[in-house]
Design brief:
Blueprint lengths: L2 H15 L4 H39 L4 H16 L3 E7 L6 E7 L14 H10 L3 E3 L12 H5 L2 E11 L2 E11 L7 H82 L6 H30 L7 E4 H18 L2 E7 L4 E4 L1 H19 L4 E10 L2 E8 L28 H11 L3 E6 L5 E7 L5
Parallel strand pairs: 7-9
Antiparallel strand pairs: 1-2, 1-5, 3-4, 4-5, 6-8, 9-10, 10-12, 11-12
Length: about 450
């Protein structure tokens, strides 16, 4: 049973009990009247709080700025039973604010211009305090406002929209002479709503800024991708140019050798030994050109598909060294092996042999004609085989070492395209492994390969 009904029944019982005592009856009636008024006020406040809670929930769920402002204005007018209302937001214009949402009188729908007391809005924004009047026609604060007079405005309220310490704007509502008057309770209610509205407007502004920032980032990303594509195309053209330059430069020497010795071979008086030496020189030059051509093809093809097979480490190293033995012997480079692991490993034998050849070739170029040692070691690690190549050449400068696996890096080489180590790195990574280089000037260079493939 509603509490008001219980008060009515209690009053009726007390009336019957006090019929023979008029003074007591009159006093109790007055008290019950006060209690009823207090209860009605309490119920009204309860309804207002419920309305505020509902409005807060609605505002929190809206992030579109235009829709939010219309919602705030609509709920403000309903909450205080106003006839007309406006939301103004501060800006950098000469007026200092703009009308962001408006609700005209129902019988003035043809008016598109927001007739609002600008002096009143300036007063609210400057003072950061609410304002109310119940007789705007005679209130000296509004005498200069033509809109107040022309629309016969009687009651006006305006409250600032403040988020933390920032004045964001104001809510303005009014009624005409024929309508209800606003009260201080209405002003408190509108001020409470304005606090929630300011927070919602702030969130909508942040959301709009975030959307704008996202669009800017998307545009920037698209531009970055376009620039990146252009850089890639430029880099490819640059790589082609460097590759062409390397090919022309590196082919000059063997082509000169072939031309000179081919001329010798055409002479009738050339001795048998001289002819053999010239033919050998031509063949060596052609072998060098084939090797460089193979490096270029490997680089252009990007490694290609792997054809895995299981081989023993010792047999694989022996086969690779056999291919290099004559060339290394000519430069008085001694090969020493320390194969602690000689068991099976699954690799693409052809491609990995190319890796060994490239690393041995790097050691050969580093050691030069002075002679030296290339040590090849193997170690077994969990689920991996480690191959270590160490030479006793002059080493690689610290500033060059980080770039040693980059294409066209030719430090210490008198010939070649500078692609060998770049190709080797790609082949090893295709196997799921890694390669690293360590060097100290005057103490040689060490290449360490970890093949992260299953053993056996």
């Amino acid at each position: 049973m509603p509490l008001t009904n219980e008060i009515d029944e209690l009053e009726a019982l007390l009336n019957r009990a006090c019929q023979e005592q008029p003074a007591v009856l009159a006093g109790s009636k007055a008290k019950f009247d006060n209690l009823r008024r207090a209860m009605q006020m309490l119920l009204k406040r309860q309804a207002e709080l419920a309305a505020l809670y509902e409005i807060t929930s609605e505002l929190a769920s809206s992030v579109d700025r235009s829709e939010l402002l219309q919602l705030i204005l609509s709920r403000a007018i309903e909450l205080v039973q106003a006839e007309r209302g406006f939301i103004v937001l501060t800006d950098s214009s000469p007026a200092g604010f703009q009308v962001a949402a408006a609700r005209q009188f129902t019988d003035d729908s043809e008016s598109s211009e927001a007739q609002i007391s600008r002096s009143l809005i300036h007063k609210v924004l400057a003072s950061r305090t609410s304002l109310i009047t119940t007789n705007a026609q005679e209130d000296p604060r509004f005498q200069a406002s033509s809109s107040i007079v022309s629309y016969r405005i009687r009651s006006v309220m305006a409250v600032p929209l403040i988020y933390e310490r920032e004045v964001m704007g104001a809510i303005y509502v009014d009624t005409r002479i024929s309508a209800r008057l606003f009260t201080q309770e209405d002003l408190k209610l509108l001020s409470a709503m304005a606090s929630q509205a300011a927070s919602a407007i702030r969130m909508a502004r942040l959301y709009a800024n975030l959307q704008t920032r996202n669009r800017q980032l998307q545009d920037a990303l698209a531009e970055l991708r376009a620039t990146q594509d252009e850089l890639i195309r430029s880099e490819r053209l640059s790589a082609v140019g460097r590759l062409a330059s390397a090919i022309i430069h590196d082919f000059e020497t063997p082509m000169t050798v072939i031309k000179v010795h081919s001329t010798f071979l055409g002479q009738d008086e050339l001795s048998r030994d001289e002819r053999k030496r010239s033919a050998a020189a031509v063949l060596n030059a052609l072998d060098g050109m084939v090797e460089m051509s193979q490096e270029i093809l490997d680089y252009v093809r990007g490694g290609g598909e792997l054809h895995m097979e299981t081989v023993n480490v010792d047999a694989f190293i022996a086969e690779a060294l056999d291919f290099l033995s004559e060339e290394l012997a000519e430069q008085r480079i001694k090969v020493v092996t320390d194969l602690a692991y000689t068991g099976p490993v699954t690799i693409d034998k052809t491609k990995m042999r190319r890796v060994v050849i490239n690393i041995a070739g790097s050691a050969r170029d580093s050691i030069g004609n002075r002679g030296g040692t290339l040590k090849i070691a193997s170690r077994l690690e969990p689920n991996a085989v480690k191959l270590i190549f160490t030479d006793d050449g002059p080493g690689v400068p610290a500033e060059v070492l980080p770039h040693i696996f980059e294409p066209f890096e030719t430090y210490g080489k008198t010939q070649g395209t500078g692609l060998g180590l770049a190709i080797s790195k790609k082949i090893i990574e295709d196997h799921g492994g890694s390669i690293s280089a360590a060097s100290e000037p005057g103490k040689g260079t060490t290449f360490t390969i970890r093949l992260m493939t299953r053993v056996g």
